[in-house]
Amino acid sequence: MKCPFCNFEESKVADSRESMDGQAIKRRRQCLKCNQRFTTFETIDLTVQVLKRDETYEDFKQEKLFGGIMAACRHTRVSHDKVKSLAYHITADLTARQLREITTRELGAIVMKHLQEIDTVAYIRFACVYKRFKDIKEILDAIDSIKHKDGSYCLTGKNNFNSEDADYASTRE
Ligand SMILES: [Zn+2]
User: Is residue 158 part of a domain?
Assistant: First the structure.
């Protein structure tokens, strides 16, 4: 881990703690050259391949997953740390399942399942990109599908989306 201030290669760990979901390790480091302190957030190195819509593969990247979820959570009550934790959690899950490859469709469905439990706005926003809705009616139908009959939103119930037209997270290349 290079120092972000002077690029020196060596640093010492000043403090380590488990964070968020209890699976990630956050480390406070101090550069051995310039003595500046910085924080590292350990992520898992995955070799899972993502099969995209155009039938090409790319390496799974937690950062890209994070970016896609973050885009859906912008201007919601979902914090940056919460999104980071979610991206890490999904990544850890894929690793635990020892998957070699996953389709963008499957990945999108996993993200949606989690977002549904976290924030309705983020969930709908992600679904809009993931499903590539063609008109406002499709969006309204999707919102309806998570609404209870009394008008309140169901945050944890199962959704009615099928898994067609998935995208790998919600950001375009
Ligand atoms: Zn330094």
Answer: no
